[in-house]
Amino acid sequence: MLEAVLVGFIFAILLVFVGRWFRGPIAVVSALIPIGLFVYFLWHIGGISAGDVIYESYRWIPSFGVNLSFKLDGLSLLFSLMITGVGSLVFLYTAAYLKGHKYLDRFYGYLSLFMAAMLGLVLSDNLISMFVFWELTSISSFFLIGFNNDSKASRQSALVALGITGLGGLLLLGGALLLGFISGTYEISEMLTQSDVITQHPYYALAAILMFGAAFTKSAQFPFHFWLPGAMKAPTPVSTYLHSATMVKAGVYLLFRFSPVLGQTELWHTTLISIGAITMLYSAIHIIFRTDLKGILAYSTISALGILVFLIGIGTEAALIAASVFIVVHALYKASLFLITGIIDHETGTRDITKLTGLRKVLLPVAIAGFIAALISGGVPPSIGFVGKDLIYEATLHSNNAVLLTVLAIATNALLFYGGFVAGVKPFMGQLPKKFEKIHLPSPLMWLPPLIMVTAGIIFGIAPGLVETTFAQPIVNVMFTSAEDVHLKLWHGFNLVLGLSALTLAVGTILYFLLKPTHQKETFISQFNFIAPKDLTLKLSDGFEWFGHIWTGYFQNGYLRHYLSIVVGFIILLLGYLLLFDFDLDIDYASLARITVYEIAIVLMMVIAIIFTVFTKSRLAAVAAMGVVGFAFSLFFLFYSAPDLAMTQFSVDTLTVILFVLVLYKLPTYLKLTNDKIRIKHGILSLSLGGLITILILKVLNEPKNTEITDFYAENAYKLAHGKNIVNVILVDFRGIDTMIEISVLVVAALGVFGLLKLRLKTKDKK
Amino acid sequence: MKTQFLSNILLMLIWVFLTGSYTFENFSFGFILSFLILWIISRKTDQNKYYKILPRIIGFFFFFLWEMIKANIQVAIEVITPTHNMKPGIVSVPLDAKTDVEITFLANLITLTPGTLSLDVSTDRKVLYVHSMYVHNKQEFIDDIKNGFEKRLLAILR
Amino acid sequence: MKTIILKTASNYLLPVLLLFSVFILLRGHYLPGGGFVGGLVAAIAFVLDAFANGLQNTKQVLKIHPGFFMPVGLAIAFLSAISPILFADLPLMTGLWAHEPVPVLGKIGSALFFDTGVYLVVIGAALTIIFTISESA
Amino acid sequence: MTLNDYLYYVILPLLSLAEILVFIRFIKGPSIIDRVVALDLLITIGIGIIAIYSIINNQPTFLDIAMILALIAFLSTVAFSYYLEKRNKND
Amino acid sequence: MTDVLIYIFATLGTLFALLAAIGIIRMPDTYLRISVNTKAATLGVGLLLGAAAVYFYDFSVTTRVQAIVIFILLTAPVGAHLIGRTSYFLGNKLWDGSVIDDLKDRYNKSTHELKSDPEQVEENNSKQDSKTDRNA
Amino acid sequence: MTNHVIILPLIVNLLFSIILMFFWRNINFQKLFSVIGNAIGLGVAIYVFTHVYQNGTQVVEAGNWEAPFGIVFVGDMLAATLVLLTAISGLAVSIFSSISVINARLRFGYFSVFQFLLLGLNGAFLTGDIFNLYVWFEIIIISSFVLISIGGEKNQLEGAVKYFALNFFASMIFLTALGVLYGLAGTLNMADLAGKVQSIENRTLVDVCAVLFLVGFGIKSAIFPLYFWLPASYHTPPSAVSAIFAGLLTKVGVYALIRVFSMIFEIDVFLQNLLIGLGILTIFSGGIGALTHTNIRKVFSYLIICHIGFMIGGLGLFTKVALTGVVFYLIHDIIVKTNLFLIAGVIYRIKATTNMNKIGGLYANYPKLSLLMAIPLFSLVGVPPLSGFWPKLSLILASFSEAQYWYFGALIFGSFITLFIIARLWSKAFWKDQPEFKRERKFIYFYELRPFQKLQFIMPIMLLTFVSLYIGFGANHIQELSVRIAEEITNKDLYIKAVLNP
Amino acid sequence: MELLLAIITGLLYAAGIYMIMRRSIVKLILGIVLLGNGVNLLIFLLGRITKGEPPIISDSDKILEGIFADPIPQALILTAIVISFGLQSFAIILVKRAYKVLKTDDLDQLNTTDEDS
Ligand code: NA
Ligand code: NA
Predict the structure, then answer these.
(1) Local confidence pLDDT in tens for the 136 residues of chain E
(2) Between chain E and chain G, are at least 3 CB pairs below 8 A?
């Protein structure tokens, strides 16, 4: 299976280098990859439906417990077949749809990247590697939505989509790690065995919520759904492939996969049922107000995803069977409808449903495909859609809240019926406008794929056993340890479910004839955009950005003194907290306060000179006062047994004064003064810090001191290092490295001064 | 050549004084070191006579010491007493001293003597401007300097 | 500054200060002093000369650009730091000492070379800084 | 009173007093020249203090610091003069 | 005997240092302050250093003291000269009681050349105002 | 036979900085020797790394003075790894500098100062003495001052003034901390301090000292609320300079924090809350700073801050898992951040601006280059399996195990905002059409360069990208390395034993 | 004396920080110098001060015994002084150059790099 996953990646990487060859007609060859993979997975159907599970594992990052482990069971097989099957058709379709496009190679590159990632996602048995693929699908989706990157709307949508799915991805990461943390493994099959441990763990709710977040964003559940209609800016093959058939189902897949691990709890059922229900109905209603074919399909996709989540939420065996069948149903008809829309768009140049009529006259095979797709979508027998719908009602009827849930399901299905017919039938009915008369049927590469898919929909409907054995049963086996046998039938006889189906068809038909898509409706609904999740989210994000400007503007306002006062304030806060919190200044003042006359003189001079430096209005006087401070320092060092320091301090001070003096006369006198308020504020800040430093010193002086090192130097400076001035011995021997670097500092400073003053750049060319 | 040699010896002596080690090696080292330094900083300088000056220097030293003590007392009284009795002013003193060294020595000695301060030498080196605390009579003041310091100094330096 | 008094005085002060700076350098291991202060004093000597005689004159006296002292000094310090590795298989910066005391300098070792490097670097750096400023002032 | 006591209790305080007086001039100014002169005098008297201090502590090494002070204190004065003259000339 | 010498040197030295300090406080103009401090302090410090030389009575200390005294004797007057003339450039006024000012109008204000007699002075100097430290 | 291996990087750096100074004005020589020096440096660093990897912690006692009396150099796994990363970034930036930095700047000792900078970094990583660390820090900051201001025009100088003031202040705080530490413990050797600080009774003072170190290093590593100098200055110097700054300068602060808080101070509840709180605020502040800017280099600058927060928070957790994450993140971040600023440099060379509103069409005009650039960009985001992804696993896990939900939230926030910002950058600079374009006069555009010159621009990016890819795809090695380092960090006895009882 | 010196150290910190926060670049530099001195004094004080006993072995002795000042803080401060000298000279020049290019010594005018551009 690793090869199956890798082949797409390898192809994508190859295309970077040999892409030129794949811009022409030869591009269609790319389709061999999904077709080959499709065959590969078909090959496994037999074994899987017989109950086999194929498992492979490669060590990847064992230190993280991350393995490339793949598991092919009923669930992953279904998805793999969908991915490669729809993929094959989309690859073929693309060759015609984007014929001659100058970036066709890139498009195939992204598609293969996506396909590989998606395969990896559904096949992974390791949660972390699954996450890796999950993120890659988001990224490839980003690139595909933004494929027409000269359009601002495309870029915007790509960004929104990536934003939402990316956020979801991070939640998944959190969830995955948390599950790993709880269960001690990232292997999903091992987690299965610990379902009880997980659901009873205190972190369960957090883990579940994180997983929900991931699934809901990826599968466009309310209120995160809005990225999906935006994603329709992508070329139609992308909408078909990613945004209806496969990627958006990743969330559903996740929920499916984890319902044995996390399911069977109140939280699980309640959340999924309510979010699913809201989503399916909310977006089904939205269908009515759309005129763009892709918009209609997008909302109906969201609605369908809602149904899936809803079913998983119900969580009974019936519900899961319904869900697994509905996944297939949806893939077949929705992908077809998208491809059909693509053809219409490609040929007529518009997707506005109000302008499209009578196209059957020029696009007959397409019309046939559209019609069948609508049937499947509407659940009209003998299509597989009918089977799917029956199963849904079966599931709702046997749930806890049977009436409510069934009513919701009927309403949704009726609206989906309407949507399917509007998209699949309406453009082909009625009069053909003059401007469309010259349209020719496009290459079979474009109209065959939808036709193939709807045909499959009919075949599955007529022989539901195919569905039953190939995936419904295997999936149920995956979900339930003691699963009952699944029996799918087109005809159950006259019962309540049949009645509900009939009701749905009837309501749907009425809706179709009653409601006409108009621009007025679209304008009407757009009035409510301001309370729609999309606008709210964008407003929130704008608000956040506004807040960001405020925050950044406050902290990073450009004034050095502001920065310093924050830093100083921060230090005061910390030191103050530590030093004053338990205020015990039991300091031996007596021993610290002994003083002599000449010391008083120095201290007095120092203090006044410091204050003078700060407050004098003459810069020269300030420099001279610093000279006094330096001199007082030297004397002080001398009194306290540091002759080397005294010498150095004095020489350095003299040089510094010279430097000041040399530079000062090019600089202006002090003129600008900050206002008193700020000065007082800064005064308080600086004095507080100074005060804290004083307290700190006194406290430290109260502590005993360790003199081990000092004693060693006193003992060995002459004996071992042959010097008597211990300070110098430290500088050139004991700690000679310090000195080595210290002189390097001087060298660099001198180089810097030299460069700073001598280098004059003349041209703009400076980076 | 002679000047340099003398400077060299002088520097060597300073070295020996500084180090306080009066060994042959230290003398030689001091000589070599001074030679190197002089070589490094060599610049065309006026030639000076360094010989036959010792007796005059000693004489001059005592003269200067006397002047210094005398004037210091005068200044001390001025400083300590509450009233100011001085008559300060800046006087231009014509110079006989010609070379840089002569002028510099003279100016410095005048400055070191209390009550007087050499402010500057005119650009054409003809006049030394001296600030003094007591200028009772300008000509007398000038003569004092010329007959006292300048004469004795030039005797040593020339 | 155009004053012959300062000029003349500085002509005498320059060698004296330089001599003094070497004195400070050499005695550092035994008494207060060392390469750093020594270097500063030497630098100050040249700065004084520059004040009195003008920068160009001082540069002529120095003959080489003061900046050149820096790599030379650094190289000397560097060599004395790594010579134990190269010659004695001892760790970086280990003091190597001649067995017999040398006249004047006393016991001679790599520490002295190191300090000499410091001395040169300090002269070079201080002069580079100050001369550059004077030139651009 | 021993010599040390004399130096410690009479001489040093007096020299300190001298320093304080000079420092008062430093603060008063009024001209920058007065401050430079005061700074110079501070250092000169400081050399004296060091001399006495080295006697009290019996540490001849301290005289070396006096030497440094004597040698380079002068340079600040030169620098200030240089600055003031140059600035004045350029105006 | 040495102690007596030290007492004398130290006391005299301190008195001269004090003299310089009082002088710099009391003297009415900058030039007088410079004048007083240069010598009194030099003498005072020389004496104090002398006390140290006597105390240690060691050749190396004595030579060091000599060196310091020579340095001071060399640098103090040069410094006084520099700062004094600068003071004049800056236009620091002589004390009111001053009797004579031969320097008046002899500096060329732009080149700082100093003339030796009054005739050489250009007349344009007169209109320039005196300047004090503008930062003050 | 004494083992000198771990100080070889220092010797190479110093040797070449001296050589380069001797050949002051010969630019071609300097370019060549700088690259040669850095190549040798890389070789030596690899040698050091493998040596330490195989033989464990290495100690060199400078001056042959037994610890704690002299200065020791300690090459543990953390130090060796950082030395290696420094060498890699150094080589890349050195090549990049030789083409992107104009000759006028090179003529003023650029390469020599650059070597000094690397010297400082290597020294800081290798030293086992806290005061010596200060000295290395100083050579780093003085070199960075010079590099950030040299040839400075208006905004470069503005940036430099702020950079200087705040970094100088940081040094002062660092020194203050050192003074307090010495006053309390009487020693400077870190291994020795580990024991002596523990026996100090007054824990408040120890905490004060720790806080001072935190502030001192915090300014340098740009944590909230101490980072202001970074966005004010990092975008102003030549890209090569920003690149080495971005990659290594803030990280050396993080390194120092790790070292100090693992060796000398114990992270108590107070410090833990402080570090985690600051980490969260740093992530937040950096993230929204990046969100609100449009100059690419500035955006990257804020992202540096944001990601420093990840590491600071992880350090606060101080579990083995968290530290594994911190170390892994550090490794990843050094390479990627260096690369990003090089990329910004190339973008500047292509478009003469780095404002993303004013540029576009990069993908259309330079598709392969764009894809090359995409790798580090998305590595930064942490798109799996690229390098930025893996360390987050450990960090998040640690946040769960320590029940630090706010930190977890901040990690998610930071990752998300990085994703969004990079995607937006991609959308604006790479996808969008070039807005109206006015050709700068006297500016040599990328397309006008000779092929070899282009290669000099691209090569370093390729080198670093390759390393990033290795970190991502060979994450197992890096993870094992990080685990080993985290082990060494949490078990300081190993270090102490190596230093004090050789 | 320690008490007084501790207060002076605090004062130096306060003065240095206050000066760095002024608008004039020259004051910034003065502040840096003051702060540097404050830090040196802090290290010196915390290394414990000893009067009149420099850490120098006398001519006749081979080891230093009895009371003597701790040489380590002195060596550290010496290093710090030298480094500060390098940094300060660089800062002085930086300021000069900044003034020349930016035509202002007002730090408040130096805020364009924090604007987005
Ligand atoms: Na030194
Ligand atoms: Na040694």
Answers:
(1) 788 999 999 999 999 999 999 999 988 889 989 888 887 888 899 999 999 999 988 877 888 888 888 888 888 999 999 999 888 888 888 888 787 888 777 777 777 777 777 655 444 444 444 433 333 3
(2) no
- Ligand 2 center to residue B101 CA distance, Å? 49
Closest residue by Cα to residue F102 from A766, A465, B8: A766
Three-state DSSP at B134 gives strand
Return the domain boundaries, chain A.
265-526, 710-767
- What is the spatial distance between Cα C100 and Cα F307, in angstroms, rounded to a whole number? 60
Contacts of E10 in chain D (CB under 8 A): 6-7, 11, 52
C-beta separation of F113 from G90 below 8 A: no
In this complex, the residue of A647, A665, A740 whose CB is nearest that of residue C32 is A647
Is A648 a residue whose pLDDT tops 50? yes
Angle at F482 between CA F481 and CA F485, to 5 degrees: 90
Between β-strands A54-61 and A66-72, what pairing exists: parallel, antiparallel or unpaired? antiparallel
Ligand 2 centroid to Cα of residue F121, in Å, is 23
In D, minimum Cα distance to C38 occurs at D68
Q: Could you tell me the residue range of the domain that residue D70 belongs to?
A: 3-89
Q: What is the pLDDT of residues F181-209, one digit of tens each?
A: 999 999 999 999 999 999 998 899 999 99
CA of A730 to the centre of ligand 2 (A): 9
C127 touches C21 (CB < 8 A): no
* Contact yes or no for G74 and A645 at CB 8 A: yes
Contact by Cβ (8 Å): G18, A683: yes
The ranges assigned to domains in chain G are 1-53+69-103
Which residues contact residue A139 at a Cβ distance below 8 angstroms, ignoring those fewer than 6 apart? A162, F378, F383
List chain C domain ranges. 4-136
Domain boundaries defined on chain B: 2-47, 50-157
The answer to whether the Cβ–Cβ distance between E86 and D66 falls below 8 Å is no
CB contacts < 8 A, C to G, total 12
The shortest C-alpha distance from B90 to chain C (Å) reads 18
Output the six-digit token pair for A219.
């599968």
**Distance (Å) from the C-alpha of residue B32 to the closest C-alpha of chain C?**
11
User: What burial class does residue F119 get, using C-beta atoms within 10 Å of its C-beta: 0-12 exposed, 13-18 middle, 19+ buried?
Assistant: buried
User: Where in chain F are the domains?
Assistant: 2-500
Domain count, chain D: 1
Given the DSSP bridges, would you call strands A66-72 and F58-61 parallel, antiparallel or unpaired?
Answer: unpaired
- The correct CATH number of G1-53+69-103 out of 2.40.50, 3.30.420, 2.30.30, 1.10.287 is 1.10.287
Q: In the beta sheet, which residues pair with residue B131? A: B90, B117
Query: Looking at chain B from residue 97 to 136, which residues have their Cβ under 8 Å from any Cβ of chain C?
Result: 100-101, 103-104, 107-108, 118, 120-121, 123, 125
Tell me how far apart the alpha carbons of residues A432 and A423 are, in angstroms, rounded to a whole number: 16
pLDDT of residue F502: 64
Cα dihedral F177, F181, F186, F187, rounded to 10, equals: -80
pLDDT category of residue A453 using cuts at 50, 70 and 90: very high
How confident is the model over B1-59, as pLDDT tens digits? 567 677 778 888 888 878 877 776 787 788 888 877 777 776 554 444 433 455 677 78
**pTM above threshold 0.90:** yes
Which subunits sit against F, judged by 3+ Cβ pairs under 8 A? A, C, G
pLDDT of residue B53: 53
> Mind telling me how many Å the CA of A574 is from chain G's nearest CA?
17
Does residue F228 carry a pLDDT above 70?
yes
Say if B and G touch: at least 3 Cβ pairs within 8 Å: no
Work out whether strand B116-121 and strand B127-132 pair parallel, antiparallel, or are unpaired: antiparallel
The DSSP code for F59 is: E
Structure tokens at E133: 């430290």
Cα of D16 to nearest chain E Cα, Å: 9
